[in-house]
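Hi L.,

As promised, Putative zinc-binding metallopeptidase:
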Amino acid sequence: MRPFDCPNCGRLNHFEVRVCPACSATLGYDPEADAFRFLADDRTTWRERGGRPADMMVCANNNRFGICNWLTTPGAPNGMCRACRHNRTIPDLADPAVPPLWARVEEAKRRLFHSLIRLGLPLETKAEERPGVQGLAFDFLYRPGSLQGGHKVVTGHDEGLITLDVSEADDAHRERVRQQMGEPYRTLLGHFRHEAGHHYWSRLVAPDPARLEQWRALFGDEREDYGAALAAHYNGGRKAWTEGYVSHYATSHPWEDFAETFAHYLHIVDTLATVRGFGLSLTAFGGVNGDGRVELGFDPYAADAAALAAEMAPVSFAMNAVNRAMGQSDLYPFNLTGAIVGKLAFVQDMARAARGG
């Protein structure tokens, strides 16, 4: 995503900011305006750029746990912001290892919600669920000893409920699991985007017969035994990682193929929005237009999949080169083939239809 300027002094800040490093103003993010507000000297009034008052209040999760930097409107359900109101279960905070891990979980979740809101995807809570409309909720769980390799929580999705192992917020634990699984990429934000993909399959694909048939033509038949497919995958895999799949895990079952593709759509959109937010271009590669210029009207949140892939190719090459210069692994170790772009186009069309054109 783009960098956010402090509404009090104009300094650029990261999305996780709570206090502006330049002017020391207390900041809060307003998801409806996609902008930060600052707390006035009276410590009760949130103000927009120029000092205009905004009818906002701090999310209840910040008041109670100091865990959220989003604002919400008076009268919001349980005083929660648009992201926190989807939490069903938070981890037991009595263990001193848990609060900092949960804080990182919530930071990643807010980045997910920023993308979902910008894309115009539906975000019903479980309280708003009704026939044909699946709500979204989160269980954030932690089991003592999981950081040392003990019994852990299984991260997954079931009918709109995403369960996430809070241990995944620990870098050492996550890297150990990544190596055990033979994965080129494993991040906390990636988990959120993947599991959200499962939710939107149930929310937007499964209830629509025409869209479901189109989906099956691209991803396969989801009626294949899911448990058997995963068992086969983890026992050596029945399918090779070919150019038709964005990751090896995507080969395990059509549901996982879609979730991985959905996650990569969000990876690409957010990466390109960030690059453009800083005004970066890739003139060494001729730019997107082939003449050294980046197309100024290009909006990653609305662009077609082919345009996204065309720009992501030189951007990811450059980012990978920077990472290698720092002795790090490639930031985006994937190749977007024509078949994968076709699947990304399905996700992009689904998002476009969900927001009404």
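Confidence is low (pLDDT under 50) at residues 283-296.

Thanks again for sending the construct details.

K.
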